[in-house]
Amino acid sequence: MVYSYAQLEQWDKQYVWHPFTQMKQYVNERPLIIERGKGSYLYDVNGRRYLDGYASLWVNVHGHNDPELNAALSEQLEKIAHSTLLGSANVPSILLAKRLLEYWPHMSKVFYSDTGAAAVEIALKIAYQYWKNLDPVRYATKNKFVSLKEAYHGDTVGAVSVGGMETFHRIFAPLLFERIEVPAPYVYRMEEYGSEQDVVRHCLNELERVLASQHEHIAAVIVEPLVQGAAGIIVHPRGFLKGVEALCRQYGTLLICDEVAVGFGRTGTMFACEQEEVAPDLVCLGKGITGGYLPLAATLVTEKVYAAFLGNVEEDKTFYHGHTYTGNQLSCSVALKNIELIETRGLLDDVQRKARRLAGWLERLYDIPIVGDIRQKGLMCGIEIVKNRRTKEVFPRAAMLEHRIILEARRRGLVIRPLGPVLTFIPVLAMSEAEMEEAVRILYDSIVCLYEQARAEFG
Ligand SMILES: *Cc1c(COP(=O)(O)O)cnc(C)c1O
Protein backbone atom coordinates (compact mmCIF):
# COMPACT_ATOMS: atom_id res chain seq x y z
CA MET A 1 0.00 0.00 0.00
CA VAL A 2 1.37 3.39 -1.01
CA TYR A 3 -0.06 6.32 0.91
CA SER A 4 -0.40 9.81 -0.54
CA TYR A 5 1.57 12.73 0.85
CA ALA A 6 -1.68 14.30 2.04
CA GLN A 7 -2.66 11.18 3.97
CA LEU A 8 0.77 10.80 5.58
CA GLU A 9 0.87 14.49 6.43
CA GLN A 10 -2.45 14.22 8.19
CA TRP A 11 -1.42 11.17 10.21
CA ASP A 12 1.99 12.66 11.01
CA LYS A 13 0.33 15.74 12.47
CA GLN A 14 -2.32 13.65 14.19
CA TYR A 15 -0.11 10.98 15.79
CA VAL A 16 3.58 11.93 15.94
CA TRP A 17 5.22 14.21 18.49
CA HIS A 18 8.49 15.35 16.97
CA PRO A 19 11.63 15.91 19.06
CA PHE A 20 12.85 19.43 19.85
CA THR A 21 9.85 20.76 17.98
CA GLN A 22 7.19 23.30 18.89
CA MET A 23 4.32 21.29 17.50
CA LYS A 24 1.99 24.29 17.37
CA GLN A 25 4.33 25.74 14.76
CA TYR A 26 5.02 22.38 13.09
CA VAL A 27 1.40 21.68 12.23
CA ASN A 28 1.22 24.93 10.24
CA GLU A 29 4.00 23.84 7.91
CA ARG A 30 4.27 21.25 5.19
CA PRO A 31 6.35 18.43 6.69
CA LEU A 32 9.25 16.89 4.83
CA ILE A 33 8.36 13.21 4.60
CA ILE A 34 11.34 11.12 3.55
CA GLU A 35 10.81 7.92 1.66
CA ARG A 36 14.29 6.83 0.63
CA GLY A 37 17.89 7.90 0.29
CA LYS A 38 20.79 7.33 -2.08
CA GLY A 39 24.31 8.63 -1.54
CA SER A 40 24.16 12.29 -0.48
CA TYR A 41 20.49 12.63 -1.37
CA LEU A 42 17.24 12.18 0.53
CA TYR A 43 14.04 11.66 -1.48
CA ASP A 44 10.62 12.63 -0.17
CA VAL A 45 7.37 10.81 -0.83
CA ASN A 46 6.66 13.21 -3.71
CA GLY A 47 9.88 12.15 -5.41
CA ARG A 48 11.71 15.43 -4.76
CA ARG A 49 15.37 15.11 -3.81
CA TYR A 50 17.42 17.05 -1.29
CA LEU A 51 21.12 17.17 -0.54
CA ASP A 52 21.57 15.84 2.99
CA GLY A 53 23.34 18.81 4.55
CA TYR A 54 22.87 17.58 8.12
CA ALA A 55 23.98 13.99 7.52
CA SER A 56 20.60 12.96 8.95
CA LEU A 57 21.54 14.60 12.23
CA TRP A 58 25.33 14.21 12.05
CA VAL A 59 25.34 10.46 11.67
CA ASN A 60 25.69 9.56 8.02
CA VAL A 61 29.18 8.67 6.86
CA HIS A 62 29.25 6.83 3.51
CA GLY A 63 25.95 8.08 2.13
CA HIS A 64 22.49 6.55 2.22
CA ASN A 65 21.74 3.06 0.98
CA ASP A 66 25.37 2.02 0.66
CA PRO A 67 25.53 -1.43 -0.99
CA GLU A 68 28.35 -2.69 1.26
CA LEU A 69 26.74 -1.55 4.50
CA ASN A 70 23.45 -3.03 3.31
CA ALA A 71 25.19 -6.33 2.60
CA ALA A 72 26.86 -6.42 6.01
CA LEU A 73 23.51 -5.82 7.63
CA SER A 74 21.64 -8.49 5.65
CA GLU A 75 24.43 -10.97 6.27
CA GLN A 76 24.08 -10.46 10.02
CA LEU A 77 20.31 -10.54 9.76
CA GLU A 78 20.50 -14.02 8.23
CA LYS A 79 22.26 -15.17 11.43
CA ILE A 80 20.51 -13.34 14.27
CA ALA A 81 19.18 -9.83 14.94
CA HIS A 82 19.63 -9.67 18.70
CA SER A 83 20.60 -11.60 21.78
CA THR A 84 21.64 -10.12 25.12
CA LEU A 85 25.05 -9.12 26.55
CA LEU A 86 23.77 -9.69 30.09
CA GLY A 87 25.44 -12.94 30.95
CA SER A 88 26.32 -13.90 27.36
CA ALA A 89 28.43 -12.55 24.50
CA ASN A 90 27.99 -12.20 20.74
CA VAL A 91 30.34 -12.17 17.77
CA PRO A 92 29.97 -8.64 16.30
CA SER A 93 30.15 -6.92 19.71
CA ILE A 94 33.43 -8.71 20.48
CA LEU A 95 34.98 -7.82 17.12
CA LEU A 96 33.79 -4.21 17.29
CA ALA A 97 35.18 -3.67 20.80
CA LYS A 98 38.56 -5.00 19.68
CA ARG A 99 38.46 -2.79 16.58
CA LEU A 100 37.50 0.38 18.50
CA LEU A 101 40.29 -0.13 21.01
CA GLU A 102 42.86 -0.28 18.20
CA TYR A 103 42.18 3.45 17.78
CA TRP A 104 42.57 4.06 21.51
CA PRO A 105 45.66 2.07 22.50
CA HIS A 106 45.72 3.53 26.02
CA MET A 107 42.18 2.29 26.73
CA SER A 108 41.11 -1.20 27.60
CA LYS A 109 37.33 -1.76 27.73
CA VAL A 110 34.20 -0.93 25.75
CA PHE A 111 30.78 -0.57 27.43
CA TYR A 112 27.93 -0.55 24.91
CA SER A 113 24.68 1.37 24.89
CA ASP A 114 22.36 2.71 22.23
CA THR A 115 22.35 6.52 22.22
CA GLY A 116 24.94 9.20 22.81
CA ALA A 117 23.09 10.39 25.91
CA ALA A 118 23.32 6.90 27.40
CA ALA A 119 27.05 6.75 26.60
CA VAL A 120 27.40 9.99 28.58
CA GLU A 121 25.22 8.80 31.50
CA ILE A 122 27.39 5.70 31.68
CA ALA A 123 30.60 7.73 31.67
CA LEU A 124 29.26 9.94 34.48
CA LYS A 125 28.17 6.99 36.60
CA ILE A 126 31.45 5.17 36.03
CA ALA A 127 33.43 8.30 36.96
CA TYR A 128 31.38 8.78 40.10
CA GLN A 129 31.59 5.16 41.21
CA TYR A 130 35.28 4.94 40.30
CA TRP A 131 36.19 7.18 43.23
CA LYS A 132 33.79 5.40 45.59
CA ASN A 133 35.27 2.02 44.64
CA LEU A 134 38.80 3.29 45.20
CA ASP A 135 38.10 4.65 48.67
CA PRO A 136 34.58 5.45 49.90
CA VAL A 137 35.87 7.44 52.87
CA ARG A 138 38.66 9.44 51.32
CA TYR A 139 36.58 10.22 48.22
CA ALA A 140 33.20 10.56 49.94
CA THR A 141 32.65 14.03 48.51
CA LYS A 142 34.37 13.63 45.14
CA ASN A 143 30.99 13.85 43.41
CA LYS A 144 30.88 16.91 41.21
CA PHE A 145 31.30 17.36 37.50
CA VAL A 146 32.83 20.27 35.63
CA SER A 147 31.66 21.14 32.13
CA LEU A 148 31.89 23.99 29.67
CA LYS A 149 29.54 26.88 29.16
CA GLU A 150 27.08 25.90 26.41
CA ALA A 151 28.09 22.26 26.75
CA TYR A 152 25.76 19.68 25.21
CA HIS A 153 25.95 16.01 26.12
CA GLY A 154 22.45 14.68 25.40
CA ASP A 155 18.93 14.88 26.77
CA THR A 156 18.55 12.37 29.60
CA VAL A 157 18.56 13.87 33.08
CA GLY A 158 22.20 13.08 33.87
CA ALA A 159 23.39 14.27 30.47
CA VAL A 160 21.33 17.46 30.83
CA SER A 161 22.87 17.99 34.29
CA VAL A 162 26.32 18.38 32.75
CA GLY A 163 24.90 20.43 29.89
CA GLY A 164 25.23 24.17 29.80
CA MET A 165 22.64 25.25 27.29
CA GLU A 166 20.47 27.75 29.09
CA THR A 167 17.15 26.86 27.43
CA PHE A 168 17.32 23.13 28.17
CA HIS A 169 18.89 23.61 31.57
CA ARG A 170 16.52 26.17 33.01
CA ILE A 171 13.35 24.16 32.51
CA PHE A 172 14.69 21.06 34.26
CA ALA A 173 16.90 22.77 36.84
CA PRO A 174 15.17 21.27 39.92
CA LEU A 175 15.76 17.75 38.59
CA LEU A 176 19.45 18.17 37.85
CA PHE A 177 22.54 17.44 39.92
CA GLU A 178 25.06 20.14 40.60
CA ARG A 179 27.53 21.11 37.91
CA ILE A 180 30.43 23.52 37.92
CA GLU A 181 30.57 25.62 34.79
CA VAL A 182 33.76 26.94 33.27
CA PRO A 183 34.01 29.21 30.22
CA ALA A 184 34.50 27.76 26.75
CA PRO A 185 36.73 29.46 24.18
CA TYR A 186 33.98 30.93 22.00
CA VAL A 187 36.37 33.30 20.27
CA TYR A 188 33.79 35.15 18.15
CA ARG A 189 31.95 36.39 21.25
CA MET A 190 34.92 36.86 23.56
CA GLU A 191 36.90 39.50 21.77
CA GLU A 192 37.25 41.51 24.98
CA TYR A 193 39.82 38.91 26.09
CA GLY A 194 42.09 39.54 23.11
CA SER A 195 43.53 37.07 20.62
CA GLU A 196 42.53 33.44 20.19
CA GLN A 197 45.34 32.33 22.42
CA ASP A 198 44.39 34.92 25.05
CA VAL A 199 40.88 33.47 25.08
CA VAL A 200 42.31 29.97 25.54
CA ARG A 201 44.50 31.21 28.39
CA HIS A 202 41.54 32.89 30.07
CA CYS A 203 39.43 29.72 29.87
CA LEU A 204 42.22 27.49 31.14
CA ASN A 205 42.92 29.89 34.00
CA GLU A 206 39.27 29.71 35.02
CA LEU A 207 39.36 25.91 34.91
CA GLU A 208 42.52 25.92 36.96
CA ARG A 209 40.95 28.24 39.53
CA VAL A 210 38.02 25.79 39.92
CA LEU A 211 40.22 22.72 40.09
CA ALA A 212 42.72 24.27 42.49
CA SER A 213 40.03 25.17 44.99
CA GLN A 214 37.63 22.23 44.56
CA HIS A 215 39.50 19.25 43.11
CA GLU A 216 38.74 17.19 46.19
CA HIS A 217 35.07 17.41 45.27
CA ILE A 218 35.41 16.95 41.52
CA ALA A 219 34.91 13.49 40.04
CA ALA A 220 35.47 14.44 36.42
CA VAL A 221 35.70 17.13 33.81
CA ILE A 222 33.63 16.45 30.69
CA VAL A 223 34.26 18.16 27.35
CA GLU A 224 33.37 17.89 23.70
CA PRO A 225 36.85 17.73 22.14
CA LEU A 226 37.72 20.41 19.52
CA VAL A 227 34.15 21.39 18.59
CA GLN A 228 31.06 22.12 20.68
CA GLY A 229 28.46 20.96 18.19
CA ALA A 230 25.01 21.74 19.55
CA ALA A 231 26.23 25.02 21.04
CA GLY A 232 26.52 26.29 17.47
CA ILE A 233 29.70 24.67 16.13
CA ILE A 234 32.03 26.47 18.52
CA VAL A 235 35.49 25.52 17.31
CA HIS A 236 38.06 25.55 20.09
CA PRO A 237 41.44 27.05 19.20
CA ARG A 238 44.46 24.78 19.19
CA GLY A 239 45.83 23.98 22.63
CA PHE A 240 42.63 24.24 24.63
CA LEU A 241 41.95 20.51 24.80
CA LYS A 242 45.57 19.72 25.61
CA GLY A 243 45.44 22.34 28.36
CA VAL A 244 42.29 20.79 29.85
CA GLU A 245 43.97 17.39 29.88
CA ALA A 246 47.07 18.76 31.62
CA LEU A 247 44.95 20.38 34.34
CA CYS A 248 42.95 17.19 34.91
CA ARG A 249 46.21 15.31 35.42
CA GLN A 250 47.67 17.98 37.66
CA TYR A 251 44.63 18.08 39.94
CA GLY A 252 43.80 14.38 39.97
CA THR A 253 40.42 14.35 38.31
CA LEU A 254 39.12 12.16 35.49
CA LEU A 255 38.75 13.52 31.96
CA ILE A 256 35.72 12.45 29.91
CA CYS A 257 35.83 13.29 26.20
CA ASP A 258 32.44 13.22 24.50
CA GLU A 259 33.28 12.29 20.90
CA VAL A 260 29.64 11.53 20.06
CA ALA A 261 29.46 14.32 17.45
CA VAL A 262 33.10 14.65 16.40
CA GLY A 263 34.08 10.97 16.22
CA PHE A 264 34.37 8.80 13.10
CA GLY A 265 36.06 11.27 10.79
CA ARG A 266 33.86 14.32 11.22
CA THR A 267 36.76 16.67 12.02
CA GLY A 268 39.20 15.11 9.54
CA THR A 269 40.76 12.50 11.82
CA MET A 270 39.10 9.31 13.03
CA PHE A 271 38.70 10.89 16.47
CA ALA A 272 39.11 14.51 17.55
CA CYS A 273 41.40 13.69 20.50
CA GLU A 274 44.08 12.53 18.05
CA GLN A 275 44.61 16.08 16.85
CA GLU A 276 45.97 17.18 20.21
CA GLU A 277 47.29 13.80 21.29
CA VAL A 278 44.96 13.74 24.24
CA ALA A 279 44.40 10.53 26.21
CA PRO A 280 41.14 10.82 28.19
CA ASP A 281 40.13 8.43 30.98
CA LEU A 282 36.71 7.89 29.42
CA VAL A 283 35.44 8.42 25.88
CA CYS A 284 31.84 8.54 24.64
CA LEU A 285 31.08 7.44 21.08
CA GLY A 286 27.81 7.48 19.14
CA LYS A 287 26.25 9.15 16.10
CA GLY A 288 28.57 8.18 13.19
CA ILE A 289 29.56 4.85 14.74
CA THR A 290 27.18 2.82 12.53
CA GLY A 291 27.63 5.11 9.52
CA GLY A 292 24.16 6.46 10.24
CA TYR A 293 22.37 3.11 9.97
CA LEU A 294 21.32 2.03 13.45
CA PRO A 295 21.39 3.30 17.02
CA LEU A 296 24.56 2.36 18.86
CA ALA A 297 26.85 4.07 21.37
CA ALA A 298 29.84 3.11 23.43
CA THR A 299 31.77 4.30 26.46
CA LEU A 300 35.47 3.44 26.46
CA VAL A 301 37.56 3.39 29.62
CA THR A 302 41.20 2.96 30.57
CA GLU A 303 42.50 -0.06 32.46
CA LYS A 304 42.97 2.16 35.51
CA VAL A 305 39.27 3.04 35.59
CA TYR A 306 38.14 -0.50 34.77
CA ALA A 307 40.35 -2.11 37.40
CA ALA A 308 38.62 -0.11 40.16
CA PHE A 309 35.42 -2.07 39.44
CA LEU A 310 36.98 -5.48 40.07
CA GLY A 311 36.33 -7.19 43.39
CA ASN A 312 34.45 -10.00 45.07
CA VAL A 313 30.71 -9.96 44.46
CA GLU A 314 29.88 -8.93 48.02
CA GLU A 315 32.12 -5.86 47.79
CA ASP A 316 29.57 -4.29 45.40
CA LYS A 317 32.18 -2.79 43.13
CA THR A 318 30.16 -4.05 40.16
CA PHE A 319 28.91 -1.50 37.68
CA TYR A 320 25.14 -1.96 38.00
CA HIS A 321 24.07 -0.54 34.69
CA GLY A 322 22.89 -1.94 31.36
CA HIS A 323 20.39 -1.39 28.59
CA THR A 324 18.20 -4.02 26.98
CA TYR A 325 19.65 -3.66 23.48
CA THR A 326 23.25 -3.34 24.64
CA GLY A 327 25.70 -4.78 22.09
CA ASN A 328 22.97 -5.45 19.51
CA GLN A 329 24.36 -7.60 16.68
CA LEU A 330 22.84 -5.67 13.77
CA SER A 331 24.23 -2.37 15.07
CA CYS A 332 27.65 -3.81 15.86
CA SER A 333 28.03 -5.56 12.51
CA VAL A 334 27.16 -2.46 10.54
CA ALA A 335 29.54 -0.42 12.76
CA LEU A 336 32.35 -2.84 11.98
CA LYS A 337 31.73 -2.51 8.25
CA ASN A 338 31.49 1.29 8.60
CA ILE A 339 34.96 1.42 10.17
CA GLU A 340 36.40 -0.95 7.59
CA LEU A 341 35.03 1.22 4.77
CA ILE A 342 36.36 4.43 6.33
CA GLU A 343 39.79 2.82 6.06
CA THR A 344 39.54 1.05 2.69
CA ARG A 345 37.90 4.02 0.98
CA GLY A 346 40.49 6.47 2.33
CA LEU A 347 37.70 8.61 3.70
CA LEU A 348 39.79 10.57 6.22
CA ASP A 349 42.17 11.96 3.55
CA ASP A 350 39.10 12.73 1.50
CA VAL A 351 37.47 14.65 4.33
CA GLN A 352 40.59 16.73 4.85
CA ARG A 353 40.86 17.58 1.16
CA LYS A 354 37.16 18.42 0.87
CA ALA A 355 37.27 20.49 4.05
CA ARG A 356 39.92 22.71 2.46
CA ARG A 357 37.83 23.22 -0.69
CA LEU A 358 34.73 23.83 1.39
CA ALA A 359 36.47 26.56 3.40
CA GLY A 360 37.01 28.48 0.15
CA TRP A 361 33.36 28.20 -0.91
CA LEU A 362 32.05 29.15 2.52
CA GLU A 363 34.23 32.26 2.55
CA ARG A 364 31.94 33.72 -0.15
CA LEU A 365 29.07 33.82 2.33
CA TYR A 366 30.77 36.80 3.99
CA ASP A 367 29.47 38.82 0.99
CA ILE A 368 26.10 38.79 2.75
CA PRO A 369 25.93 41.41 5.53
CA ILE A 370 23.99 39.19 7.97
CA VAL A 371 26.71 36.52 7.99
CA GLY A 372 28.65 37.33 11.17
CA ASP A 373 30.99 34.37 11.60
CA ILE A 374 31.82 31.20 9.71
CA ARG A 375 33.31 28.37 11.75
CA GLN A 376 34.55 25.09 10.43
CA LYS A 377 36.44 22.02 11.55
CA GLY A 378 36.65 19.24 9.02
CA LEU A 379 33.13 18.80 7.65
CA MET A 380 31.41 20.48 10.56
CA CYS A 381 30.40 24.05 9.78
CA GLY A 382 28.44 26.78 11.49
CA ILE A 383 27.37 30.10 9.99
CA GLU A 384 26.32 32.60 12.63
CA ILE A 385 23.61 34.99 11.43
CA VAL A 386 23.61 38.48 12.97
CA LYS A 387 21.45 41.54 12.58
CA ASN A 388 24.44 43.79 12.99
CA ARG A 389 27.92 42.67 12.12
CA ARG A 390 29.63 45.26 14.29
CA THR A 391 27.64 44.74 17.49
CA LYS A 392 27.03 41.02 16.72
CA GLU A 393 23.43 41.46 17.82
CA VAL A 394 21.23 38.60 16.64
CA PHE A 395 17.72 38.77 15.18
CA PRO A 396 14.78 38.49 17.61
CA ARG A 397 13.87 34.86 18.21
CA ALA A 398 10.26 35.45 17.18
CA ALA A 399 11.36 36.48 13.69
CA MET A 400 12.56 32.88 13.18
CA LEU A 401 14.89 34.14 10.49
CA GLU A 402 17.20 31.13 10.61
CA HIS A 403 14.24 28.79 10.39
CA ARG A 404 12.99 30.68 7.34
CA ILE A 405 16.44 30.36 5.75
CA ILE A 406 16.42 26.59 6.14
CA LEU A 407 12.89 26.37 4.70
CA GLU A 408 14.09 28.39 1.73
CA ALA A 409 17.08 26.06 1.35
CA ARG A 410 14.73 23.09 1.46
CA ARG A 411 12.66 24.57 -1.36
CA ARG A 412 15.90 24.81 -3.31
CA GLY A 413 16.93 21.21 -2.62
CA LEU A 414 19.13 21.28 0.49
CA VAL A 415 18.26 20.16 4.02
CA ILE A 416 20.14 21.79 6.91
CA ARG A 417 19.22 22.79 10.47
CA PRO A 418 19.69 25.91 12.54
CA LEU A 419 20.97 25.93 16.12
CA GLY A 420 19.72 29.22 17.53
CA PRO A 421 21.20 31.91 15.28
CA VAL A 422 23.68 29.47 13.73
CA LEU A 423 23.03 27.64 10.46
CA THR A 424 24.83 24.33 10.50
CA PHE A 425 26.18 22.54 7.48
CA ILE A 426 27.22 19.03 8.43
CA PRO A 427 27.10 17.05 5.21
CA VAL A 428 27.20 13.33 4.68
CA LEU A 429 30.95 12.69 5.08
CA ALA A 430 31.22 11.06 1.67
CA MET A 431 29.42 13.93 -0.10
CA SER A 432 31.27 14.74 -3.34
CA GLU A 433 32.96 18.09 -3.95
CA ALA A 434 30.48 18.95 -6.69
CA GLU A 435 27.53 18.22 -4.40
CA MET A 436 29.09 20.25 -1.62
CA GLU A 437 29.70 23.21 -3.90
CA GLU A 438 26.06 22.98 -4.98
CA ALA A 439 24.95 22.88 -1.33
CA VAL A 440 26.93 26.05 -0.53
CA ARG A 441 25.44 27.75 -3.58
CA ILE A 442 21.93 26.94 -2.33
CA LEU A 443 22.88 28.15 1.12
CA TYR A 444 24.18 31.39 -0.34
CA ASP A 445 21.02 32.03 -2.36
CA SER A 446 18.78 31.16 0.59
CA ILE A 447 20.57 33.53 2.97
CA VAL A 448 20.48 36.31 0.37
CA CYS A 449 16.76 35.74 -0.11
CA LEU A 450 16.04 36.09 3.62
CA TYR A 451 18.52 38.95 3.96
CA GLU A 452 16.37 40.90 1.56
CA GLN A 453 13.22 40.04 3.48
CA ALA A 454 14.92 40.94 6.76
CA ARG A 455 15.94 44.32 5.36
CA ALA A 456 12.30 45.00 4.56
CA GLU A 457 11.22 43.93 8.07
CA PHE A 458 14.01 45.31 10.23
CA GLY A 459 15.51 48.09 8.08
C1 LIG B 1 24.18 14.23 19.86
C2 LIG B 1 25.10 14.32 21.02
C3 LIG B 1 24.86 13.59 22.20
C4 LIG B 1 23.61 12.79 22.41
O1 LIG B 1 23.49 11.72 21.53
P1 LIG B 1 22.05 11.05 21.31
O2 LIG B 1 22.35 9.89 20.41
O3 LIG B 1 21.20 12.09 20.65
O4 LIG B 1 21.54 10.66 22.63
C5 LIG B 1 25.80 13.64 23.20
N1 LIG B 1 26.90 14.39 23.07
C6 LIG B 1 27.16 15.12 21.96
C7 LIG B 1 28.42 15.90 21.88
C8 LIG B 1 26.26 15.12 20.91
O5 LIG B 1 26.49 15.87 19.82
Automatic annotation (TrEMBL):
The keyword Transferase applies. GO terms for biological process: biotin biosynthetic process. PROSITE patterns: AA_TRANSFER_CLASS_3. Pathway: Cofactor biosynthesis; biotin biosynthesis; 7,8-diaminononanoate from 8-amino-7-oxononanoate (SAM route): step 1/1. The modification N6-(pyridoxal phosphate)lysine is found at residue 287. It comes from the Bacteria. Substrate binds at residues 152, 287, 322, 417. It is an enzyme of class 2 (transferase). One of its GO terms (cellular component) is cytoplasm. Pyridoxal 5'-phosphate binds at residues 116-117, 258, 323-324. Belongs to the class-III pyridoxal-phosphate-dependent aminotransferase family. BioA subfamily. Catalyzes the transfer of the alpha-amino group from S-adenosyl-L-methionine (SAM) to 7-keto-8-aminopelargonic acid (KAPA) to form 7,8-diaminopelargonic acid (DAPA). It is the only aminotransferase known to utilize SAM as an amino donor. This is Adenosylmethionine-8-amino-7-oxononanoate aminotransferase. It comes from Geobacillus subterraneus. The lineage of its organism: Bacteria, Bacillati, Bacillota, Bacilli, Bacillales.
